[in-house]
Specification:
Blueprint: H1 14-28, H2 37-50, H3 60-64, H4 70-91, H5 108-137, H6 141-165, H7 168-182, H8 190-227
Helix pairs in contact: 1-2, 1-7, 1-8, 4-5, 4-8, 5-6, 5-7, 5-8, 6-8
Length: 232
């Protein structure tokens, strides 16, 4: 999906759907108790989505808008660059390859790889979000107020979101263990290729989820710039 395609809203998050599908076999054999990670994350996103700045929209439109300010264009371009580089790092992660990983009788190497990718996303996107907030603050008025609101929301809600996303490796470990139990060739490559692709899909969905607040801020810049005459 290209950058010009509008993303889905929070309550239809691809990450929530993927986690629910991967957890379904385990949950089917368990008594209903505490909500699953997918359920908890879905409820959280429904709630935060209700107070979010907006649904995630196309960042490509901002980068190409003729009336966009230099700050808006720079922020949009950096968002595109960050998304591409983070996605490329996930796709190229060697631990997710089909070849058996040395010493990978358990999930530990995969857990380390997933957590490393999560840390990279968190660090890069936090810096990107700050850059976009500065672009909004520099415009003054309602956009500056929006930047301040986003900063306050980020500070207040980040810990809970981080805690929920930290549960992703544990869910993936259960999936890994089930595939390992079911295979006739625990040292083989077929089931490892399957789990590697699933890990990549989950992390790419998480990347899009983490980018949504940034894209919402960029949408606000785009809408404001569309009201203004073209600028140098």
């Amino acid at each position: 999906m290209g950058p010009g395609v509008r993303a889905a809203g929070f309550n239809s998050s691809a990450l929530v759907r993927l986690l629910a599908a991967l957890a379904a076999p385990e949950l089917a054999g368990e008594a209903k108790g505490e909500p699953s990670l997918a359920e908890s994350l879905g409820r959280w996103l429904d709630w935060t989505g209700a107070i979010s700045l907006s649904a995630a929209l196309s960042v490509g439109a901002v980068a190409e808008a003729p009336g966009a300010t230099a700050a808006a264009k720079a922020a949009a371009a950096e968002c595109l660059r960050a998304r591409a580089q983070l996605a490329k790092a996930i796709a190229a992660e060697p631990v997710f390859a089909s070849e058996p990983v040395a010493g990978a009788a358990d999930f530990l190497p995969y857990r380390h790889a997933v957590m490393a990718q999560q840390r990279a996303m968190e660090t890069r996107i936090a810096a990107l979000r700050s850059q976009v907030r500065r672009a909004l603050a520099g415009r003054g008025g309602a956009l500056a107020q929006l930047a301040a609101l986003d900063g306050a929301m980020d500070e207040a809600l980040a810990a809970r979101e981080r805690a929920l996303l930290a549960g992703v490796p544990a869910l993936l470990e259960k999936r890994f263990a089930r595939l390992q139990r079911e295979t006739d060739d625990p040292a083989g490559t077929a089931w490892r290729a399957a789990i590697g692709q699933e890990l990549k899909s989950v992390l790419l969905a998480e990347l899009e989820l983490r980018l949504q607040p940034v894209l919402g801020l960029l949408e606000a810049l785009e809408q404001e710039d569309m009201k203004q005459p073209a600028r140098a």
